[in-house]
Amino acid sequence: MSNKKPQNTSKQAGNGLNTTDMNRRQFLRRLGFGAGSAMAMMALEPFTVLAKGERPAEGAAEGRMTYRVQHGTGEQISLLGFGMMRLPNDQERVNELVDYAIAHGVNYFDTAPMYMGGHSEVLMGNALSRHPREKYYMATKMSNLNQRLWDLEEAKKMYYQSFQRLKTDHIDYYLLHSIGGGGVEGLKGRFLDNGLLDFLLEERKAGRIRHLGFSYHGDVSAFDWLLDHNDDYHWDFVQIQMNYLDWRHASLQKGGWKQDADAEYLYNKLQKLDIQCVIMEPLRGGALARMQRELSDQLKTMRPNDSPARWAFRWVGSYTNVLTALSGMNSMEQLKENVETFSPLDPCTESENVLLEKLADEMAGLPLIPCTTCSYCMPCPFGVNIPRNFATYNEALNEHILPLPDGDAAKREANRQQFADMLSKAVPEKSAWASACQDCEVCLAKCPQQIRIPNQMARIVETLREFKR
Questions:
Q1: For residue range 392-410, what is the model confidence (pLDDT) as tens digits?
Q2: DSSP characters for 60-79?
Q3: Are the C-beta atoms of residues 319 and 294 closer than 8 Å to each other?
Q4: Is 111 left (phi over 0), alpha (psi -120 to 50) or beta?
Q5: How would you classify the pairing of strands 67-69 and 137-142?
Q6: How far apart are CA 170 and CA 452, in angstroms?
Q7: DSSP string for 113-131
Q8: Higher pLDDT, 49 or 270
Q9: ∠ Cα 236 309 333 (to 5°)
Q10: Which of 77, 229, 304, 362 is most buried, taking the most CB atoms under 10 A from its CB?
Q11: Could you tell me the pTM of the whole model?
């Protein structure tokens, strides 16, 4: 590559003590401090950095947000990041959420040009620009998933438009959006052959992009290719989907397609390269917050007052190479609970990790549709509300309404009626039900989870086949 950036990620150079080239814990250990001494020193600082399995430092202030240090720059990033994909389309409500988040230590805000048809960037920009620029870090993406945007000039228009919408002269964290679809060939078409990545590297060099990374879904060959060429690009961070279910079960056969890599593989490869992770889908699109009651009851036996969502966030935050974990918060209730979870973080213990691993194994056996309700598949040309159909189907599985029981005809029809009632509430217009799917496959290329959407729609149609409205 002709456009190389000087290495600025955390790498150990020789035997010297360069604090910009290692994280704080490594630095303290080089000086001879043990883990206990390191934690005691951290307690004196205006932030909390916790390692997996450690308890909060003695004296750590209750109500203080946990931060992680960005390698190379020393920036303190809130471990809770605000994902702005599912915002209410109401500027006043978004302002209230952002104001509360900033007042309680959240400083990482993530969006993309494609979220809410562009409204997310506008809402986020309007809300954040009311605060001093040093109070927050913005993340947005090159969402050139449409092949028309593979043209360099069209992609540049999207890039410059983000600055206008976000009301900023620099973007703190900029991502190549959702690499993996189409494998290495798709990656080359979107970013390499057209010179787009070279352009973004120059933008980082000029300071308009402060940190450059990518988000990954799908074909792991693209993920591996970019990391195998890290000496050319020097990625500052990478965004991956990680939660305690996808840690070892993401590569199960789902919906007819295969997810190529578990989160354990992704995380460990990044950690070996000392590239920090930004985590998306820590709740797996809310599925880990709405698990079956018998599963959530097992969590309550250990921590009666903690919600399943809090367990999932604590698990993700316990991994020290996680820079921030994104949560798509669209209500003050969600925001307050999540802020409390990370203020400060109480990492999972070994026994808690064992329990979560057991629950993940049990959940992996459920025939859930692996939809995270991201809505990338929308709009459907035939009006099907894909995410709501899938979410309702999964809810019915968790409530044991589905699958329909065999043998007892009356019970079978009662459950079918109950599922139809649930679907009627979630999707009031029957024209948006799964039965409207025409198997056109337009949605397939858009789905980051690589769900075979028409096949899953057929499951729902078959479930309701005998039901008469």
A1: 888 887 777 887 877 778 8
A2: PPTTPPPEEEPTTT--EEES
A3: no
A4: beta
A5: unpaired
A6: 38
A7: TTGGGGHHHHHHHHHHTTS
A8: 270
A9: 100
A10: 77
A11: 0.74
Q: To 5 degrees, how large is the angle CA 160–CA 166–CA 170?
A: 65
CA quadruple 457, 263, 323, 13: dihedral, nearest 10: -150
- Alpha carbon distance 235, 176 (integer Å): 11
Count of residues in the chain:
469
The number of angstroms, rounded, from the C-alpha of 100 to the middle of its chain's C-alpha atoms is 21
- The CB-side HSE value for 174 (13 A sphere, CA atoms) comes to 24
Q: Are 324 and 68 in contact (CB under 8 A)?
A: yes
Q: Is the pLDDT of residue 4 over 90?
A: no
Q: Would you state the structure tokens that stand for residue 399, as one six-digit string? A: 């409530």
**Alpha-carbon gap, residue 283 to 404, rounded angstroms:** 27
Which residues partner with 94 through β-bridges?
Answer: none
Quick one: how far is CA 380 from the chain centroid? Answer: 23
**Helices 350-364 and 308-317 meet at what angle, rounded to 10?**
120
| Contact partners, residue 439, CB within 8 Å, separation at least 6 | 454
For 256, other C-beta atoms within 10 Å of its C-beta total 13
Distance, CA of 179 to CA of 223 (rounded, Å): 7
Q: Is 374 exposed, middle or buried (0-12, 13-18, 19+ CB in 10 A)?
A: buried
Q: What is the rounded CA–CA span in Å between residue 176 and residue 278? A: 13
* Beta-strand pair 237-241/209-216: parallel
Report the pLDDT value the prediction gives residue 307, as an integer from 0 to 100. 96
Q: Which two tokens stand for residue 17?
A: 């003590």
Joined tokens for residue 226:
């970019």
Q: Which one-letter DSSP state was computed for residue 407? A: S
Q: What DSSP letter does each residue of 246-266 carry, written as one string? A: HHHHTTSEETTEE----HHHH
Tokens of 262: 């578990």
Question: What is the pLDDT confidence band of residue 365, given thresholds at 50, 70 and 90?
Answer: confident
CB-based contacts of 447: which residues, under 8 Å, 6+ apart? 376, 377, 453
Alpha carbon distances (Å) from 387 to 92, 379, 428: 26, 10, 14
Q: Which of 26-30, 128-132, 276-280, 313-317 has the lowest mean pLDDT?
A: 26-30
Q: Give dist(CA 117, CA 378) in Å, integer.
A: 10
Torsion angle of C-alpha atoms 82, 87, 93, 99, degrees rounded to 10: 10
Pairing mode of beta strands 322-327, 67-69: unpaired
Prior bond of 379 cis (ω within 30°) = yes
